[in-house]
Amino acid sequence: MVDLNREPMPRQDSKQRRQNFSEVALGYGDKQAFSEAKRCIQCPKQPCITGCPVGIDIPAFIDAMLKKDMPTAARILKNKNSLPAICGRVCPQESQCEAVCTLAKKGAPIAIGRLERYVADWERNNKPGIVNTDLPNLGGKGVAVVGSGPAGLTAAADLAKLGYRVTIFEGLHEPGGVLMYGIPEFRLPKEIVTSEVDYVVSLGVELRLDSLVGKLFTIDELLANGYDAVFLGTGAGLPMFLNIPGENLNGIYSANEFLTRINLMKAYRFPEYDTPVKIGKRVAVIGGGNVAMDSARCAIRLGSDEVYIVYRRSEQEMPARREEIENAMEEGIHFRFLTNPKLFIGNEKNWVMGMECLEMELGEPDTSGRRRPIVKPGTEFVMDVDELVVALGTTPNPLIASTTPDLETTKYGTLLANADTGRTVKDSVWAGGDVITGSDTVISAMGAGKRAAADIDGYLKTR
After folding, report:
1. pLDDT digits (tens, 9 = 90+) for 346-398
2. pTM for the model
3. Which residues of 393-423 are buried (b: 16+ CB within 10 A; e: fewer)?
4. What is the pLDDT of residues 157-175, one digit of tens each?
5. Residue 443 has pLDDT above 60, yes or no
6. Domain residue spans in the chain?
7. Which CATH code for domain 241-392?
8. If you ran DSSP here, which 8-state letter would residue 24 be given?
9. Which CATH number, 3.50.50.60, 3.90.1150.10, 3.30.565.10, 3.40.50.300, labels domain 142-237+395-462?
10. Cys bridge to 157: 42, 82, 314, 426, which one at CB 3.0-4.6 A?
């Protein structure tokens, strides 16, 4: 008889985890992992594979697990996904592979993400040496990958496996892109990101840090100096704001700046690192996505007394993952739904001290498919806050586009590229991930990197 109930994920107690930045989800133990793997019915249609943006053979790696052949399980995972320990932690499996799992029709789907994490962690801890040493030689053709986030790492790994000479150019002093500067330690430990980057480098990829393309050299200079193709995986690091009065007051951060100070400047390791980041007593985070949840949960860990999520729609419309919303609620974050800021209020020293808000109600769905928030007239009220974090999404940094005149951008600042291949309008240049979609998921960026790598391979082989 098929078990329709999945194994629960062990987690830190909510009161305990408010005091630390250690990982919240603790991962399956051996018994839990194999109990969950046994639930897989190995159905003939295997819809989970098509539901995975990078096409992992999910039934095959689970079957290898059950046969206690963990090296094979890990090899199957890494055949399609070079960053499985990351995906197993932060990818929204519930809306992708797990959403189409056959068991989801009658009960809980297989916990594919949790099993992926289990296998990836086993491989990292046991180091069976899953490296493709028999790489083809394609005549020294070189590809420059700009950005070491999920799209860039995936494209670089796939191209290296195909035999290309690959160099990643990263503008920051640490590799990983948004994986390193954007996602908090309690959701994605830095050692996990470093380990996955090390795997990509082990494939023969050269990693050049502190190398800001658009400043040190342009795309045209890369193409003129030894690279036959360029992949742009530069992400979307330019924050969006509300453009309302008072937004320039002290004490108001973009989520990008707030999380970068915590992650790359190591505020999560205070007092070992005394990072210059203001910790307010009453903090409001504006937005309803995963970044808003991350910001609010960081603030509570850094010592804020009260933290609020302010969101203009209802809980049902929040784009954040359900488990992240639940984690935030368990940790004591207050939620103010159907609330939208009107202006920010400062004191005589230009530090934020309050926020005037309006109550909202929901109308008909907009282009996002969610019900449109409408102002309820005469509902103004003031929230007393001494720190604000604006988490409304991001757009690409214009540096690459401004130094590459024959690239085309949309009105949102994203690069114009073919969604299926990543080809831009500029010859020999591809792009993928948030730089063409705007803020999206890690696995979506990885899928874009994988598709672009395949198209680059076809292009360079026939050139």
Report:
1. 999 999 999 999 999 999 988 878 889 999 999 999 999 999 999 999 999 99
2. 0.94
3. bbbbbebbbebbeebebeeebbbebbeebbb
4. 999 999 999 999 999 999 9
5. yes
6. 14-126, 142-237+395-462, 241-392
7. 3.50.50.60
8. S
9. 3.50.50.60
10. 82
